[in-house]
Amino acid sequence: MKKYQGSEEFQKDMKDFETLLKKMRAEFNQHLIGNLKTPPDFTVAITRKLVRKYAGDRTLRGTQRFQYFNLVAKFNTMMEFYNRRIRDKELGKQTSFGIIREGSSPEIEAARKKARQMEPVTPDKGHIVANPQRQFTTLKKMYETWTEYSNHLNLPPDMDFDKFQRVITQKTEQLLSQKQCKAIRYKLTVTDGKIKIQAKPIK
To answer: What value, to the nearest 5°, has the Cα angle with vertex 201 and ends 199 and 203?
Structure first.
């Protein structure tokens, strides 16, 4: 087995590894926004070859071992991130692809994505509710938006329409009484991977 530990070849390869990751990030981003017709398969292949070169080398120790496996982790995270975005694009899903920008690591982006998942497919424009008992259509539209966001975020359905209607009715009656207003404007938003319902009194 050839030993790379302490060699100039290892340091050069790790520098090339970092350069390839930056190149991959840029090329994947360009592909997702439509500036490149195909994914950066050639760059990925070169990077995989470099990963395999040191995969069985047990002579790596200390900082060299950490340096290599840290770059491998970044590569694997980046591939998982972009492969999901590309699959979504090929399936025609109307999503925000969340490209990784220079200066941010794939691990950070993956953590942010896990926390907030994705932005809603269709931004909610809001719903005005004055009499929830009679505004079946309005509440139905609110619930459809709620369901759309839940599905998009891969959240388990925790409310059927009847429960949703009861929650909004109770909240509306409470706010109308407390705020002495004519109606409530509701708007569904996504924050940190959770669906929230904003309520604003209308005088």
So the answer is: 165
Q: Measuring CA to CA, which residue among 82, 96, 84 is closest to residue 36? A: 82
The pLDDT tens digits along the chain (203 residues) read 454 545 788 889 999 999 999 999 899 888 888 888 888 999 999 999 999 988 877 787 777 888 888 898 889 888 888 888 888 777 765 444 444 444 455 555 555 555 444 444 578 889 999 999 999 999 999 998 888 888 777 676 678 899 999 999 999 999 999 999 999 999 998 876 788 899 999 98
> CA triplet 109, 112, 193: central angle to 5 degrees?
145
- d(CA 36, CA 89) in angstroms, rounded, equals 14
* 157 and 150 Cβ atoms separated by less than 8 Å: yes
Domain ranges, residue 12: 8-116
Among 95, 116, 137, the domain-final residue is 116
In this structure, are 28 and 104 located in the same domain?
yes
Number of domains in the chain: 2
The model's pTM is 0.45
